TrEMBL record:
Arrestin-like N-terminal domain residues: 38-156
InterPro entries hit by this protein: Arrestin-like_C (IPR014752), Arrestin-like_N (IPR011021), Arrestin_domain-protein (IPR050357), Ig_E-set (IPR014756)
Biased segments, Polar residues type: 396-411
Name listed for the protein in its UniProt record: 6534_t:CDS:1
Region listing for Disordered, in residue ranges: 388-441
Alphabetical GO biological process terms: protein transport
Coiled coil: none
């Protein structure tokens, strides 16, 4: 049997001049609308095209849509061990286009098109692929030949995603939470409930307030965390019940430095970042579960005043030890030895200081003790895909922006480095005449 590469949708046999191809309709977007229990699913339409220059003897010609989910929950060095792995078929649909038992043993010369059209159920999870697991949907076209002839199989990967919003209203609902960290730092945070994985903008507003002027908010670190849980059911022969978690930050983290007290202030700190297609949609299946959270880490410094440490000032030493210590310090400028006598006795006492911490002879000055503590906060975020109409409008806006850039951009000027979005829409370089001479330095 000939099996084509994963990215290929056409099989060709030069020996017998046979071409087999799977073509999906242009209006197929692979989007499931609504929650899994309420979704109507989507419609898969297309055709299988067979081209042959001579009559073919075949056993059958079949189209099949297959959905599979597989996980590997083994230890790091043996993640794919069979007893820690599991594969399930979550959907299967088959259409028989030609059978030797009912349609004859040969297919005549020419171009033959076999159409397929059926509904996919709405409970199917979104496509997903990582090292430890994947959810994959594939279209197969199989041309089975008689004995002593090679079968021809072609396959096409189909991407399914879930959209939890309609095509009209954008994602405008907000999560608003507020509380106090250790009765010291109050916070109020507003974040969106959901965001699109195709460039969706996530904007959060943070308000912090401290009641003590000695408490300083040093920094705020934030990022999008993707929590993935792989698990096996143990229902298959020789398999174990296993579960493993994988927490990643697909967009990394960013830190904002403040280093100031926020006493009774109404100042709000706004942060924003955009998602991208390598952020996965939320998934809830029997073997793979994915959810997202916006993670905040607030670092606070508490400056506490303490009395001077007099342990050195009250230490007594004899004359021989002090003479030896003085001789060792004659060449050092960073450490200064201060000697003085108590009037009640002849015991010599001393205090010392360096360029970092200085004390006077009386030892009356105080120290500032810094205590650093971090507070973590996680807020759920639903990651969904755009509807077909919103995606089309976004593409049209991108095309208009691209045309505007192409008409105004000049390659004779020096510009700042482009942003990610602008860099993906940079026009092609201008064409130069072939007879133009280039001056060599």
């Amino acid at each position: 049997m000939k099996l084509l590469d994963r990215a290929s949708t056409t099989a060709f046999s030069r020996r017998n001049c046979i071409s087999l191809e799977v073509i999906l309709d242009d209006d197929f977007d692979g989007i499931m609308y609504g929650l899994p229990e309420d979704s109507p699913g989507c419609r898969l339409k297309g055709k299988v095209v067979l081209k042959n220059s001579r009559a073919l003897s075949v056993r059958y010609l079949v189209f099949m849509f297959l959905g599979k989910i597989s996980v590997a929950c083994g230890p790091a060095m043996s993640a794919t061990r069979p007893d820690y792995s599991e594969t399930q078929t979550i959907y299967r649909k088959q259409c028989v286009f030609h059978s030797s038992e009912t349609s004859g043993k040969k297919i005549s010369t020419g171009i033959h098109e076999y159409c397929f059209d059926f509904d996919l159920p709405g409970h199917l999870p979104s496509s997903f692929k990582r090292v430890r697991g994947k959810i994959e949907y594939t279209c197969y076209a199989i041309l089975a030949r008689p004995m002593f002839h090679s079968d021809i199989t072609v396959k096409k990967i189909v991407i399914l995603n879930r959209c939890l919003t309609n095509s009209i209203s954008p994602l405008q609902q907000l999560n608003s939470i507020g509380d106090i960290f250790d009765d010291k730092v109050g916070y109020q945070i507003n974040t969106p409930v959901a965001a699109y994985r195709e460039g969706g903008l996530v904007t959060a507003e943070i308000k912090l307030k401290t009641s003590d002027p000695h408490i300083v908010v040093e920094s705020i670190e934030y990022g999008l965390k993707e929590e993935i849980n792989y698990r096996t059911t143990g229902e298959h022969l020789m398999s174990l019940v296993a579960s493993i978690d994988e927490n990643i930050f697909p967009l990394g983290k960013k830190k904002i430095m403040l280093n100031r007290p926020l006493i009774n202030t109404s100042e709000s700190i706004k942060i924003s970042f955009r998602l991208c297609p390598w952020v996965n949609c939320d998934v809830d299946s029997e073997l793979i579960y994915i959810e997202h959270k916006i993670v905040f880490t607030v670092v606070v410094i508490e400056n506490a005043h303490t009395e001077a440490d007099s342990s050195f000032d009250d230490t007594e030493f004899d004359d021989d030890y002090l003479d030896a210590l003085s001789s060792d310090l004659n060449q050092t400028e960073q450490l200064v030895l201060v000697l003085y006598y108590h009037p009640c006795d002849a015991t010599v006492r001393f205090s010392f200081s360096n360029n970092v911490l200085r004390r006077d002879a009386s030892g009356a000055s105080g120290n500032i003790k810094k205590k650093t503590k971090s507070y973590d906060l996680e807020i759920p975020l639903i990651v969904t895909t755009k509807s077909a109409s919103r995606r089309e409008r976004s593409e049209n806006q991108s095309q208009e922006l691209l045309q505007e850039i192409a008409s105004t951009h000049s390659y004779h000027s020096i510009d700042e480095p482009p942003t990610y979005a602008m860099a993906t829409m940079t026009p092609s370089p201008p064409a130069y005449p072939d007879d133009e001479e280039v001056d060599e330095e």
